[in-house]
């Protein structure tokens, strides 16, 4: 997969891939989330895809299910040191599936990349 990253003005940075564009920006006049906020949002959204897939495969109604994501940072480094994902389900959701929802969210590909990060190679090229 290739993505083209460009700079449309100000502190905006956009990522283009396939038919999509992810817009990012920086405070104080941000018109879009920061790149890091977008990255963190991908964790909860990815877990959500797996939870939704679990429900759809079993014919369970996903209405009212949501995930509350909490990011904890180390006060000394500012680095993320813990991510909590709380799957909130309505009272009508069958309790026998609660643990299975957790196992489904745990399959998230973004989370797995955190656990086994890729190597990075950064180069320059004159065009």
Describe the protein.
The structure is a single chain. The chain is of the alpha+beta class. The protein has two domains: 1-32; 34-115, K homology (KH) domain (GMP Synthetase, Chain A, domain 3). 30% of the residues lie in helices and 27% in strands. It contains three helices and five strands. It has helices at 35-57, 98-105, 109-115; strands spanning 4-9, 12-17, 20-24, 66-73, 80-88. It has a three-stranded antiparallel sheet, with no helix packed on it. A two-stranded antiparallel sheet has the order 4-5. Strand 1 (4-9) and strand 2 (12-17) form a beta hairpin. Helix 1 (35-57) packs across helix 2 (98-105). The longest helix has 23 residues, at 35-57. The model has no long low-confidence stretch (mean pLDDT 96).
